[in-house]
């Protein structure tokens, strides 16, 4: 078998100077081509070579039969192929050449195309032959005649076996059933933003993984068993002297002060005169404050703050304690304090002593700062700043050996002449405590100190006040109890978390001269308090606890003072004892507990008008004023009418008629009793949960 040369590799096969010219047969011999002529470039390679050889042989021979022999497009071969299709009607490959109609204006004579090496141009809409599978049922179907446009024909350079266009001839493939334009727009958008979309997907997957891990960690931590013994005790007492305390597991227990981490904030103030420690004198009067341990290093430092010209303390006097080493006690020495401590204080100044106790191996200068402080607003005070965590990254004080942590005792004293009664009580316009963990103690300050505004914020530590006289007080404490006696002239707020409140409250009206429940010797201060008071004065008290009992007693209540009080706890009992001078509405509520409002005793000797009236109580649905504390805490007539956990009533003084040696008490209904005492403005709201509630209105 002789393999003819490949025309694709022969550069001269289609050249005009080629020895074998490419001639095409006359159009009349192939009527199915119409008037169009085709060159070898428009046919497959093997057909181009075949046509060239046949055309050249036709010119050399005079025999017509031999001219058509070997031509696959001849009439004889066409007849032969037709007979073979009739014998074997199977699908096969055929050549379907659509009929092309050329505008007569652009047609040429057959003779002009025979001698031309260049093929005749075809119309722009002429279809080229295409190879496809045919079926016998359509083997005799003729191609449809498509009229050509009137435009000039353009020579086609595409080959029959090549696609005439780079675009697919079939229907356009759509994305997500979108139109082609929308699909292209979506593709362009995806090509532009696919990187960011992938990044976003990765971030979402990472976030989901972190969330799942966090939830699993929280779930597993709930099942972790806690420490069964106090963390400062040894794990095992029978380990042959080998101590393995919980806090010794891990890194170093040392405390190292870092100014950038442990120092005061901008609002706290600036530190001056830091760590001026002196050795402790065991024979000093400080020994009455505490009993030192056997192996303990005690250091002291003292700060003095001059009194103002009017004899009062600095306008803003504050104490700050931050960090693990700020634990201890702060004591305001009262009239019952040790006489030696009273006499050691300086005259004309407020004396503050800081006593630091430490049993560890470190130096105090490396562990903490005990300094005098000053603020931009003119406030002065004392600050104790220590590390917020150990060198081993432990920040929970329960996991630290107390012997390795310094503790402090802060002592505040007024001039000795005040303790001796030779000078009036020292007035503190604003006294502020802000501690992380410190117990607060106030001695009996009656005749010693009067507070204008007292602010106490203690994250961990209790409060014990023997007697404190103040205009406004705010106490915020966590994790311990609060108890004391408070002489209040305007307002007192206490909010305790996980602790109980035991308070004896004295309501004081400086403008009421017969009210001598407290003796204030500071004339300027007494004049100031009288100037801001009025006959219809309202004193506000609030006592809140998240978990703990509340025991509130009102020891004194002038008739010129109206009381607005709210007492609430989320868990624990409540005991409230109102002064007999309280007349007005009240409400008592409890969940998971019992409510007791006993019938009051007559107590006619407590009648402020000395008319031998009888203390009385009317229970029922009260009228709830719009702006009252009852309305603020959700009480109204419709709710009270169907309530299963709230009881309301009115406390009042009932007149007594004497007739025939018998006493007859003129009781009132709730509506009449509330109307008779409406001008007083008194209101008391009690809300309990998880415990009993008891309200007594006769002062017993």
From TrEMBL:
<feature type="transmembrane region" description="Helical">
    <location>
        <begin position="196"/>
        <end position="218"/>
    </location>
</feature>
<keyword id="KW-0812">Transmembrane</keyword>
<feature type="compositionally biased region" description="Polar residues">
    <location>
        <begin position="107"/>
        <end position="133"/>
    </location>
</feature>
<keyword id="KW-1133">Transmembrane helix</keyword>
<feature type="region of interest" description="Disordered">
    <location>
        <begin position="227"/>
        <end position="252"/>
    </location>
</feature>
<feature type="compositionally biased region" description="Basic and acidic residues">
    <location>
        <begin position="1"/>
        <end position="11"/>
    </location>
</feature>
<feature type="region of interest" description="Disordered">
    <location>
        <begin position="107"/>
        <end position="135"/>
    </location>
</feature>
<protein>
    <submittedName>
        <fullName>Uncharacterized protein</fullName>
    </submittedName>
</protein>
<feature type="compositionally biased region" description="Basic and acidic residues">
    <location>
        <begin position="62"/>
        <end position="71"/>
    </location>
</feature>
<feature type="region of interest" description="Disordered">
    <location>
        <begin position="1"/>
        <end position="75"/>
    </location>
</feature>
<keyword id="KW-0472">Membrane</keyword>
């Amino acid at each position: 078998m002789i393999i003819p040369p490949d025309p694709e590799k022969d550069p001269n096969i289609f050249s005009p100077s080629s020895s074998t010219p490419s001639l095409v047969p006359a159009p009349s011999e192939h009527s199915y081509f119409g008037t169009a002529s085709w060159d070898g470039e428009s046919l497959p390679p093997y057909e181009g070579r075949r046509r060239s050889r046949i055309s050249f042989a036709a010119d050399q021979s005079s025999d017509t039969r031999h001219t058509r022999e070997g031509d696959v497009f001849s009439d004889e071969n066409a007849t032969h192929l037709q007979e073979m299709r009739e014998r074997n009607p199977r699908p096969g490959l055929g050549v379907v050449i659509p009929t092309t109609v050329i505008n007569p204006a652009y047609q040429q004579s057959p003779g002009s195309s025979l001698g031309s090496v260049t093929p005749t141009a075809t119309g722009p809409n002429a279809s080229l032959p295409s190879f496809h599978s045919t079926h016998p049922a359509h083997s005799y179907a003729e191609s449809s005649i498509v009229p050509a446009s009137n435009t000039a024909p353009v020579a086609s350079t595409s080959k029959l076996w090549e696609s005439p266009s780079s675009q697919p001839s079939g229907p356009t493939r759509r994305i997500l059933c979108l139109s082609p334009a929308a699909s292209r727009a979506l593709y362009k958008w995806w090509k532009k933003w696919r990187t960011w979309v992938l990044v976003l997907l990765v971030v979402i997957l990472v976030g989901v993984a972190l969330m799942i891990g966090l939830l699993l960690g929280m779930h597993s931590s709930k099942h972790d068993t806690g420490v069964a013994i106090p963390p400062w005790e040894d794990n095992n007492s029978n380990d042959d002297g080998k101590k393995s305390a919980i806090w010794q597991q891990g890194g170093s227990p040392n405390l190292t002060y870092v100014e950038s981490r442990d120092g005061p904030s901008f609002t706290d103030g600036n530190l001056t005169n830091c760590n001026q420690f002196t050795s402790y004198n065991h024979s000093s009067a400080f020994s009455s404050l505490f009993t030192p341990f056997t192996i303990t290093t005690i250091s002291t430092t003292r700060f003095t703050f001059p009194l103002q010209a009017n004899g009062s303390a600095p306008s803003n006097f504050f104490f700050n304690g931050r960090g693990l080493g700020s634990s201890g006690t702060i004591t305001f020495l009262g009239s019952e304090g040790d006489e030696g401590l009273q006499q050691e204080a300086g005259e004309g100044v407020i004396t503050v002593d800081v006593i630091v106790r430490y049993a560890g191996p470190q130096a105090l200068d490396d562990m903490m700062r005990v300094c005098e402080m000053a603020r931009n607003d003119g406030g002065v005070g004392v600050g104790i700043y220590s590390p917020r965590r150990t060198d081993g990254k432990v920040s929970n004080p329960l996991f630290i050996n107390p012997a390795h942590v310094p503790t402090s005792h802060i002592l505040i004293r007024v001039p000795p002449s005040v303790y001796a009664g030779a000078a009036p009580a020292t007035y503190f316009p604003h006294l502020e405590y802000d501690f992380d963990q410190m117990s607060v103690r106030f001695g009996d300050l009656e005749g010693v100190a009067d507070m204008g505004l007292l602010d106490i914020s203690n994250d961990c530590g209790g409060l014990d006040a023997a007697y404190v006289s103040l205009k406004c007080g705010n106490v915020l404490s966590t994790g311990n109890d609060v108890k004391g006696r408070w002489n209040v002239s305007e307002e007192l707020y206490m909010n305790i978390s996980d602790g109980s409140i035991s308070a004896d409250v004295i309501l004081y009206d400086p403008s009421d001269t017969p009210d001598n429940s407290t003796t204030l010797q500071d004339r300027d201060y007494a004049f100031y308090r009288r100037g801001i008071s009025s006959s219809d004065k309202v004193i506000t008290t609030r006592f809140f606890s998240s978990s703990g009992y509340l025991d509130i007693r009102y020891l004194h209540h002038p008739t010129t003072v109206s009381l607005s009080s709210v007492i609430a706890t989320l868990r624990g009992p409540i005991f409230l004892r109102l002064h007999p001078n309280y007349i007005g509405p009240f409400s008592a509520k409890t969940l998971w507990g019992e409510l007791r409002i006993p019938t009051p005793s007559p107590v006619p000797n407590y009648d402020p008008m000395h008319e031998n009236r009888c203390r009385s109580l009317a229970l029922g649905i009260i009228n709830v004023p719009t702006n009252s504390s009852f309305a603020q805490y959700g009480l109204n007539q419709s709710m009270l009418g169907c309530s299963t956990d709230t009881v309301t009533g009115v406390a009042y003084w009932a007149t007594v008629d004497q007739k025939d040696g018998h006493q007859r008490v003129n009781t009132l209904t709730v509506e009449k009793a509330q109307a008779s005492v409406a001008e007083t403005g008194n209101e008391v709201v009690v809300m309990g949960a998880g415990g009993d509630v008891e309200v007594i209105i006769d002062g017993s």
